[in-house]
Amino acid sequence: MNWNASDMNLFLQQKEYIDTLVVPLIKVETIEERMKASASSTDFLMNLVDYIELQFKGRIMVSPPFAYTPSMGLEQLGEVLAEDFSQSSFKHVMYLTTDPDWTSIKIQGKILWLPSIPIEHMDDRLKQSILEDQLKQLLPQLTEEWRN
Description:
The structure is a single chain. With 148 residues, the protein is α/β, with parallel strands linked by helices. The protein has one domain: 3-Layer(aba) Sandwich (Rossmann fold), CATH 3.40.50. It is built from four helices and five strands, in the order H-E-H-E-E-H-E-E-H. The chain has helices spanning 5-14, 32-55, 74-86, 124-147; strands at residues 20-27, 60-62, 66-68, 92-97, 110-113. Strands 1, 2, 3, 4 and 5 form a five-stranded parallel beta sheet that branches. Helix 2 (32-55) packs across helix 4 (124-147). It is globular, with a radius of gyration of 15 Å. It comes from Sporosarcina gallistercoris. This is DUF2487 family protein.
């Protein structure tokens, strides 16, 4: 389910079954030489998030992406997000990112990091295969979190 009006109506009716919130974390590079890589990472991450949402519809809610720039303090951002989401009805909050800096941040919830793969020039079948492979890598972490 996505954070939109129609899915939110369904979530509010069935929230006892939807126990997981996936929060995309998007690093927005402001230095021109890094902008293309940043945009490519965003493209990859949002495609992966859409694929995860499709596979686990009825189990997860996907929040809108949280974008930040390199000068923003990740620890403070993480603390604020964790505090706000801890007040929600979600039992599990998972932050999905391609930014390796998040792996050193202690946060309530689970950080799911994976390297970005440039998918913008791939045909749809190859892109689908890449997304399936990435989900297979994330699946053990998802199921471990759900067991706890």
